[in-house]
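Please go through this protein, sequence plus structure tokens, and consider how the sequence yields the tokens. Keep your notes short.
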Amino acid sequence: MDPPELAQALPPGDLSSHQPPKSRSMQSTSFRRFVKRFFVHILVFFFAMGSWLMPNGIFSQIPRLTKKLPEKWEISAYLVIMVQISNIVPILYVLLKRCLCKSRDVLTPTIIFIFGTGTISCVLLALFWDRTATVSHHTFSVCFLLLSFLSGGLACLTAVSFRPFVAQFQASYSAAFQAGEGGSGFYVAILGLIQRPGTSDQAFSVSAFFGVIAGTMLLCGVSYAILAFGKIAKAERLPLDERMTPMRDMHDASAPTPSSSSSSTSVSNDQEALNPHETRRPATCLGTLEHTSASPSTTHINTPTHINTPT
């Protein structure tokens, strides 16, 4: 029976069961491919969430911190200073990498250090965020400020470590990375609204909040481990010769290509071959000198037809 006759003889629901085995296998393969890529996008999203998760979580607790810490409302200024000073961390990382680790791959140990230290910092914040110490007859929340500096330094370090790692994957995963970076602030904001830190009847304490942030940081680290060492993301990586840094991209874009230079040279050579005696003359006060093609000694001058003289 021909395929059109088969389609008329069978009801619409039975057509899928009579498809060729090859087409069904292709559909199942494409579906598995879609599910796999979707899962890798989710992993990249959670991996990127760990970039600024800790500083965003600390700033969301300012309404509660002003009531418990001795700095009161000055704690927000101290936090800004700590985060700004921590910008020196990526500078030190780049200098140490260029001076001491030129031939070593330090990207993987750096990211593992970020997630490990970040998770431990969140646990320490949950335990000791309200501990104070007296310095020069003034009381300061030393533990909280030091851990805030550490969290800011780790967040700044992600700018020079997370992006090179994501650049190893296909370009379509950059959108999931950008969404994950912005999603960290959105996640912390939703968690803060549920907690209601500025009210007397808050849903859970500051220690519980930092405990949740520690668990989320651990989840981000697990996502990175699957991306870096799992087999599911290995097929989504680019070949080594296609992994190009932004500086190399700019250099390759600005450098002239051999084809363009050779084509321009060939065009100029063809023009010289067509007009071997052609030369250019300078302009005069009365007009411009024409090109001479037949004889170099013959020169034609185009003079203006009318000259305005002052009265």
